[in-house]
Amino acid sequence: MKRPLLTATALPALIIVITGCSAAQPNESAQTGRIEHVHGIAEDPRGDDLLVATHDGVFIVTLDGNVTGPVGGHDFDAMGFIVTGNTLFASGHPGQNTPAELGAPNLGIIRSDDHGLTWTPIALNGTTDFHVLTAAPDGTLYGVASSQVNVLSSTDDGKQWTTRAPIAAADLAATSSGLYAAAEQGLLVSTDGGDSFTPVPSAPLLYAIDARPDGRLVGAGTDGGLWAQEPSGTWQRLGSLQGAAQALSATEDRILLVDDRGIVAATDGGASVLVAIP
Question: Between the CA of residue 9 and those of 190, 238, 240, 261, what are the distances in Å?
Fold first, then answer.
C-alpha cells in the first residue's frame, strides 16, 4: 500500500523540507511492500530514494512515502547491510524464496551489483550471520558476526576475513581517520585496522553510529538523543529519538534513521517522518 507522508514531526527546534525522488528502474519489483523489523537504511546510489533492509528483504522507499519491494522478490532477513558505491553487501538468514546457493541457516556475505535484483554468494555462506557491516573509504569492509565478539575485516570485497580485536561492538563506522566502534564502555576508535581500540574523549554513549562523507560521526545515544559531531570534534545533541533507533545512516546533508515514528530524515536544522511503520 502507499503509505502517507506525515506532516513534519519536530525534534526540539528542528524543521525540514524534503523534495525530490527518483524514478523506478526497469525490471525492478513493483510489488507494494510492507516494512517490518528494519535492520538497515541507506541512500539508493541511483538517486534520492532510500534502500531499507528488513526482516523480509530490501525495500525501496521514495521521499514521498511510497514503499515497494522486496526488490527482486528476495525475502531474506537482511540483518547486516551496507551500500558502498553501486554495490550492496548483505548478511543474515534466508527467507522462503531464497536460493539455496546463498546459504542456510546463515547467509554469510552476499553481494548485489544490480541494486538488489540478484545476489551472489561471496564468503562464509551457510555459517556466519553478520549483524554489523560497514565500509571504509578505501573499500575495506568491517563487520561483527552474531557468533563472536571480535571485529572482522576484509580487504578483498568480502572474500576473506581477518579476525581483529574482541570488543563486542554494537555498531561500527569507518572513516579515513580510523574505525569507530559503539561499545558498552563508550565510543572507541582504532587506527590500526581494528587490532586495538582506544576511547574517544568526551563522546556520548552511543549504540548506533555512522559517518558522513567528511568523516564526522552521527549516532543514537543511550540517553535517547540523536547526536552529531561538529567539525571541531565536539558533539551536538540534535534532539530526541522516539524509542530505540532500529537503523541509522548519514549522508553529507542528512541523517536517516528508523525509530518508533517510522522512517525519519533529519538535518542539522530539522527532521521529518517519511513513512509511518505501524
Answer: 37, 14, 11, 9
Q: Which residues contact residue 144 at a Cβ distance below 8 angstroms, ignoring those fewer than 6 apart?
A: 130, 131, 132, 150, 151, 152, 168, 169, 172
Measured distance between the N- and C-terminal CA atoms of the chain, rounded to whole angstroms: 13
Nearest to 163 by CA among 173, 149, 180: 149
- pLDDT tens-digit map of 101-147: 999 999 999 999 999 999 999 999 999 999 999 999 999 999 999 99
The pTM (predicted TM-score) of the whole model is 0.85
- Give the H/E segment covering residue 90: strand 87-93
DSSP reduced 3-state for 117: coil
User: Helix, strand, coil proportions of the chain in percent (round to 5)?
Assistant: 0, 45, 55
C-beta of residue 135 within 8 angstroms of C-beta of residue 84: yes
- How many alpha carbons lie under 13 Å from residue 246 in its C-beta half-sphere? 21
Query: Which candidate, 44, 134, 120, 58, places its Cα nearest to that of 86?
Result: 44
The pLDDT tens digits for 53-95 are 999 999 999 888 889 999 999 999 999 999 999 999 999 999 9
Under a CB-based contact definition with an 8 Å cutoff, are residues 227 and 212 in contact? no
Q: Which three cell numbers stand for residue 39?
A: 535492520
Indicate the residue type of 20. G
